[in-house]
């Protein structure tokens, strides 16, 4: 349950991304600056923290072992996650982006077969391909149903083009984020903590952000003062606090795919936080009774997902003892 709570807290801080990105877009800011500035602002804070805790050398040692992997999965996990999110902000409101982002619940579960976990057998350790947690996946469908109900009235008023230009990039991001996160966890294998891993992935994605910044400078000029300030707060709230909380939560359950899917499912709460943020700061309309019903479905799905996940954990704990009894 501690990992679930950390996931919910991270979803609150992640919500700042959607609200502030939409605010920057409405003010005329370039999505290229919105995406790259976040990681430029994150970098010095992460470097100072890692150096201050004397963990810089272990990180550099790990990155030198597999530089291409850090570059690839840093770009996938951070670059192909945040750039599409910012691009989508140019074509749709924050609530639609946040709602579509909940596809990461399904995406994270569907990625399970791409990874292996080690189990102990009578003949020694054996690597087994991960299986899609079908019970948790069914609970995820309840969450997605709630999101669909909550956003139905809003989406019905939009034309096809902005909907597609919002949905497709966010779908790409929903697979890229858990994929990059899990690949780096597997590569590090517990040798690095959350702060080191986030810094390593930020450094790995840095070439992409530099290219974006150069292109933005040549096409739109320097970012405005408002966009710079808001990007700074996105970096602090979402890039640092939310990311570190989420990575810490996934670290705690990285060897249990059902639990990992449950932690990733907590990100559905972002929809509630984003709606509230848009109402308070962007003047969005109050949710209707149908939207409130959708919110209730999301909460019910979250509770059921957590319950199923805890049940799976108990089963996985008992099974090894039973195997020893009959061996």
UniProtKB/TrEMBL annotation:
Keywords: Membrane, Transmembrane, Transmembrane helix. The chain crosses the membrane at residues 31-51, 71-90, 96-116, 136-152, 158-177, 198-217, 229-247, 268-286, 292-309. Pfam families: EmrE. Coiled coil: none annotated. InterPro entries: EmrE. This is Multidrug resistance efflux transporter family protein.
């Amino acid at each position: 349950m501690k990992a679930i709570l950390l996931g919910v807290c991270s979803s609150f801080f992640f919500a700042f991304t959607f609200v502030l990105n939409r605010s920057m877009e409405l003010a005329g800011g370039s999505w290229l600056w919105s995406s790259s500035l976040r990681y430029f602002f994150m970098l010095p804070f992460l470097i100072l923290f890692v150096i201050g805790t004397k963990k810089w050398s272990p990180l550099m040692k790990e990155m030198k072992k597999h530089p291409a992997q850090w570059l690839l999965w840093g770009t996938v996990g951070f670059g192909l996650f945040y750039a599409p999110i910012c691009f989508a902000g140019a074509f749709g409101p924050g609530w639609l982006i946040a709602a579509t982002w909940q596809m990461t619940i399904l995406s994270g579960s569907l990625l399970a077969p791409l990874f292996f976990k080690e189990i102990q057998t009578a003949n020694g350790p054996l690597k087994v391909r991960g299986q899609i947690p079908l019970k948790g996946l069914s609970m995820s469908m309840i969450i997605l149903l709630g999101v669909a109900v909550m956003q139905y009235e809003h989406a019905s008023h939009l034309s096809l083009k902005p909907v597609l230009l919002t949905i497709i990039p966010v779908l790409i991001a929903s697979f890229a984020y858990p994929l990059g996160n899990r690949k780096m966890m597997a590569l590090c294998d517990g040798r690095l903590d959350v702060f080191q891993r986030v810094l390593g992935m930020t450094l790995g994605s840095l070439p992409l952000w530099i290219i974006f910044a150069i292109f933005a400078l040549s096409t739109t000029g320097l970012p405005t003062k408002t966009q710079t300030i808001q990007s700074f707060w996105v970096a602090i709230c979402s890039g640092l606090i939310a990311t570190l909380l989420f990575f810490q939560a996934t670290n705690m359950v990285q060897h249990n795919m059902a639990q990992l899917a449950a932690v990733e499912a907590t990100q559905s709460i972002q929809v509630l936080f984003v709606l509230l943020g848009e109402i308070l700061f962007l003047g969005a309309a109050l949710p209707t009774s149908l939207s409130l019903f959708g919110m209730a479905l999301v909460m019910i799905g979250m509770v059921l997902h957590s319950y199923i996940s805890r049940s799976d954990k108990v089963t996985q704990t008992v099974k090894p003892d039973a195997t020893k009894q009959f061996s």
